[in-house]
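User: Hello! I'm new to structural biology and keep hearing that structure can be predicted from sequence alone. Could you demonstrate with Acyl-protein synthetase LuxE domain-containing protein? Please show me the input and the output so I can see what each looks like.

Assistant: Of course. The first part below is the input, the amino acid sequence of Acyl-protein synthetase LuxE domain-containing protein. The second part is the output, the predicted structure written as tokens.
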Amino acid sequence: MSAVDRFYDLLEQDVDPFRQHPDNLRALQLAAMRERFTERREQIRLLNRRATDMGIDELRTEADMVPLLFAHQIYKSYPEQFVEIGRWKHLNTWLQTLTSRPVVDVDVDGVENVDSWMERLRGAGHYVFSSSGTSGKCSFISQTRADMDRVTATCVKLGVYGNKLIERDFGKRPVFLMMPPSGAHRHIGPVLSAATQLGSESTLMFDEPVLASSTIEMGRMRRTLADGSAKPSAIAAFQEQAAKRQQHTGAMIDRFLDKLLAHRDVPVLVQGNWSLHWTLVDFARRRGVANGICHPETVITTGGGLKGTQAPADFRQQIIDFYGIKSENIQNSYGMSEMIGTGPWSDVAQGFAICPWIVPFVLDKAGEKLLNPADGSGVVEGRFAFFDLLAEGYWGGFITGDKVTVDFSPQGDTEGLQGPLIRQVGRYADLEEGEDKLSCAGTMESYVRGMIEV
């Protein structure tokens, strides 16, 4: 069995991956990264170019991986006109530089917008997902069907082993999902699939799909409003659409809240991020709904930040009071779209666990220097990067925009969690350090431009 297969096997086994790590984990992770590098270098053009230019033929240590980690901006390095004027073949060519499976021959005749482009790729076995596109430009990452299935499996693992009440009531609780029925974001499909295993029935907050084309258009409008280039007619149309969308969204939240109130006598599972939980709280208060709307054994899952939502400093405690639960009934987790599997937060350990197939790297702010302790012991602060050993459709090495504090040798009661713990998380773009810049981003984007010149 290869080193990579050991991690596939770990996900498939009926074990807690956060508390039952393989023996000699660091050595096994390094062996698996070596296998991935050898395989993916032959498949991903950008990786091969980077390795050649850096003179890296094999991975001897973890530090050898650092120059091969992809900056998060690289997944939106395509020229915007490819989307704006529908140059879908060229967008395929760009995507080919970043994926391990051939996409250049995928038929794009008749594709009308970015969503139909993504749908055409899915029909050919490329399950492309996008970021939110709030800046007006989406990230696109191609994954395989196996990648999707493994995201679902990790969602189930997080649910079962991230909270004892969910584990106790596996498959029995009604699940309330603050999600749409479908969409371009990676976790929508897998989370919906996981909910069918974790709960007895599902209720969705929203009834319309999240489209990449819509979020891109909204991002562009925000940008033109900010720089003063938006035309009055475009502003009027945008405001009219926004009013209709707000009214419809309010009706959907109203319906969701009514259904949640109707289940207040039984423990339920409510899934959402912090911003959506707070939105529900704010909406309920404007309706005059009092705190304590749920059974005290209800569990809520959450993660991420407020994502621009305005809330008071004590919003988390207010959310707890609103649902009428204890703090230990919150299943908080840390992860991102580009990562297969998120790690649960432990109040006891005061940290987020890291899945054993995720190799953590702490870098300096520029993303050039590895700060991981050589002996695997100590606390380090810096930019979070990782290598995802499960990723098939894309390169698993990724440099994020997050500033983290990682404890590589946690002491005391860790609630059984093994391996390093992420103690604190912030966004460089939101901190005093200012703009999020990676020294390798410009170089990598120049590689991509050279590969897609047409």
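User: So the tokens describe the shape?

Assistant: Right, they're a compact way of writing down the 3D structure. Reading them back into a model, for example: The first strand starts at residue 70 and ends at 71.
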